[in-house]
Structures are given as C-alpha cells and as structure tokens.
Amino acid sequence: MTASALLEAEDLVVTRGGAPILRGVSVTLRAGEAVALVGPNAAGKSTLVRTFAGLLPVTSGIVRLEGKPLAEWGRSALARAVALVTPEEGAPVLLSVQERVALGRYPHRGPFRPLTPADRDAVSVALHRTGIAHLAHRPLSTLSSGERQLAALARSLAQQPRVLLLDEPAAHLDIGHQLQLFRILDEIRGGGGVAVLAVVHDLQRAAAWAERMLLLDGGRLAASGAPAAVLGSKECARAFHVEIRGHAAAGLSHSVYSFEEIL
C-alpha cells in the first residue's frame, strides 16, 4: 500500500462479455486529491470507476481500500467509505429531493430504521452545500436534468464517504452549475480529506480543476501526472487524434488549451 493512499489498484484487468475492458491498470488515489480521469470514448473510464465502487468484478489484479482488498469489505462498510455519482442515476421519480438525498444515509443506519438527528444533519448539510435546499420537498419528477444531477451529488455527500467517484458529473449542467459543482468538490476534498476521482470529458475543465490527470486509452493507463504534462504528451495527442497546445492566459493560474484535429 502506497503511503497516504486511500484507494489503490495494481495491474487491474476487467473483462466484460469475454472482452478485456481494462488492461493492467495501476492507480493510486490519496486523501484530499482532485484527480481527473480522461480518455476517448470506450477507453474504459466508466468501467474503472464502477470497479473502484465495487460494482464490477475484477478478472485479475487487485483493488485495495485503506490497505484492505476491496473483495474483503462488507457491502455496508464499502458504501460508507466509497460513493459513486453517475450521470443517469436511477431513483423512484415520486421521491422528494430530500428523500432521495436521505438514501445516502442508508449504509450508516441500516434497513427499516428511522433517520437519527445525525442523519438529518448530514442530509441538511448536503442539500445546502449543493445549493438545492429550496428544492428539498419537490418530487424528482419535476426537476431538470441538471437539478437531478445535483440531487445525486447531494446524496453522495450525505453518505460522507472517504472516496468520491464521479462519472461525468458535469453532464446536463450549465456553465454556472459546472463551476458550482467543481467548487463543491474542492471544498469536500480540502476540508474533509476526501479523495475525488471524476471522469471529465471537457479537457479544458479537467485541466483547470484537477491536481492530477489520468489518461485511459484502449483500457490502458497511457499517461498520468500534472494536467499540463498529460495534455502535452504524445500519448494524449494519439488518444484523441488532436494536437493540443497550452497557452498562458492573464489572470488565470492554469493554461488555456487549443485543439486541432490531426488529419
């Protein structure tokens, strides 16, 4: 186990339908880290985050959470430690937003038990942190796609995980809500020491937010490191079939990138 690592994969291989999706991937996530997972379509990004969440079986290799193999974690204990947010989360549309968010407390209280004061506090904090407290009593069916995505994020925050995995968290969000979302992610990783791994399709947004970037291509980890180094690599150009150039911009702490198709 790497020092300070919360979640660690070694030589991870995952197959689905007899076809290899992940091929020998080794990744470490540390407390308080903001990591962007990028790559072309069908690179294996969603498979990786779902495997980290314990939803997909490992063909070979190993995933450890806090030094313990993921396969040895009980379902409730794993759900208390790791939360996953996906772009199209299924939930009964008749639930209110508050009821949806309260489902994040299930691993802490078990079945058929009423919410405790601590549970209610966690739900309230999650609703306010995501800016949707005013929607608490609205049915999910009345929300926009972006509002449902924020409700899904709030549910994961109520879960109070140590590792937060997000698959395309900015999907359906307008630019204002995107900025809000990544600010929230920075708050929870900085204040609570949560390791955050997010699949981000917008490379510009990924570079502006993440401390570290992982590039998947063809199921393999093609590059890993600071966003500028990964985006400037030949592996990234090859994966996306584009030439990527970074440019300094006045008033910004990160580069602005331009992309040109390689014909």
CATH architecture: 3-Layer(aba) Sandwich
Distance between the termini: 43 Å
Summarize the main sheet. Answer: 6 strands, mixed
* Number of domains as seen in the coordinates: 1
By secondary-structure content and strand pairing, the structural class works out as alpha/beta
* CATH hierarchy class name: Alpha Beta
Kindly provide the radius of gyration, computed on alpha-carbon positions and rounded to a whole number of angstroms. Answer: 19 Å
Number of strands: 12
Helix segment count?
10
Strand order of the largest sheet: 6-7-8-3-9-10
Q: What sort of overall outline do the alpha carbons produce when their principal axes are compared? A: globular
Strand content: 25-35%
Secondary structure topology:
Blueprint: E1 5-16, E2 19-30, E3 34-38, H1 45-52, E4 60-65, E5 68-69, H2 75-81, E6 82-85, H3 97-102, H4 106-109, H5 117-129, H6 145-158, E7 163-167, H7 175-192, E8 195-199, H8 203-209, E9 212-217, E10 220-225, H9 227-231, H10 234-240, E11 242-247, E12 256-261
Parallel strand pairs: 3-8, 3-9, 6-7, 7-8
Antiparallel strand pairs: 1-2, 1-4, 4-5, 9-10, 11-12
